[in-house]
Amino acid sequence: MENSQKGFIPVMLTPFLSNGNIDYPALTQLTEIYLQAGSSGLFANCLSSEMFELTDKERIQAIKHVIKVVDGAVPVVATGTFGGAISKQADFVKEVSDQGVEAVIAITSLLADENESDDVFNDRVFDLLKQTHEIPIGFYECPVPYKRVLKPQQLADFVSTGRVIYHKDTSLDLAQIKQKLKLTEGYAFGLYDAYIVHAVESLKAGSSGLSCIQGNYFPELIVWLCDHYNDETLREEVQSVQQFLIDNMDVMHNVYPIVSKYFLQKRGLNISTFTRRAVGNFTPNVIKEVEKLFEDYSVLRSDLNIQVFI
Question: What is the pTM of this model?
Fold first, then answer.
């Protein structure tokens, strides 16, 4: 997903009905909101989508639905590895690829156990690449079931095959990101940073863009940051956006994704706060914090003259 312009790749939510089934009309509206905000791609069937709480059938149905709504407007990537033998993972990668995604994402922590070496992990990656023929692959350093961060040279070795075109980085380490970018320079490849705290510095260092949960609150703000991070005439505004995102990190991560679904309700989206994942209690105090976030964002959005569609 190489692009000279910086882009935002939302990590998509899965809306559910109150009975726990996927709410496809809400998924349609949510997808359209990401697109209207100016997202340059979408990451479907990810951790924010509650992918571990979906069945294989639901994963495929949700991916297929998103691709249908997008209708070629932007590329879509989606997770295709959920553990087990590499042959089993390869089969599901093929099934996800058949839906029309630009790249199938491999979860780094599901290709090797936490106590297994980098050599074991590397062997399995190359085995997966071999068994999936020419399908473009991406990596996501998902924190569940544990976080396996790729070393810069590892990533470079995978990218040099020409098969790995996307990486969602969760290292939280700007120096490591810079090294990854240096070693993968010149390839048709994009590194998207998940860590909003150093978003501006990461973009300036050469990241292709951002892929963070904050886009499930205000995607247009993350798009604005990707568009203006290096604009000297807006230096103060960029700093204020970066600080706003840093200041509200804890609020946005607490009992997520319930909080983001509630925030989207405040924005006018017809979405329930139902989640299949056990994430904690949505207490009155948490509600108050999210409502304050909504108020503060509304002021910031107005100050920056950012257009919103809901």
Answer: 0.96
Partners of residue 107 on adjacent β-strands: 140
**Amino acid identity of 183?**
L
Phi, psi angle pair for 161, to nearest 5°: -75, -15
Q: How confident is the model over 88-96, as a mean pLDDT?
A: 98
C-alpha atoms less than 13 angstroms from C-alpha of 88 in its C-beta half-sphere: 7
Amino acid in the structure at residue 199: A
- Tell me the residue type at 289: E
How many CB atoms lie under 10 A from the CB of residue 17?
14
Neighbours of 88 (CB within 10 A): 12
Q: If you average pLDDT over residues 258-263, what whole number do you get?
A: 98
For 107, 221, 280, the CA distances from 277, given in Å and listed in that order, are 18, 27, 9
Give pLDDT, residue 309: 77
Q: What SS3 state is found at 138? A: strand
| Angle between helix 86-97 and 56-70 (nearest 10) | 30
Number of H helices and E strands in the chain, helices first, is: 12, 8
Contact present, 34 and 288 (Cβ < 8 Å): no
Q: What pLDDT is stored for residue 308 in this prediction?
A: 86
| Residue 12 token pair | 């998509």
Instruction: Sheet containing 209-210: give its strands across.
Output: 7-8, 209-210, 190-193, 164-169, 137-140, 103-107, 76-79, 42-44
Q: Which helix (H) or strand (E) holds 42?
A: strand 42-44
Q: How far apart are CA 44 and CA 46, in angstroms?
A: 6
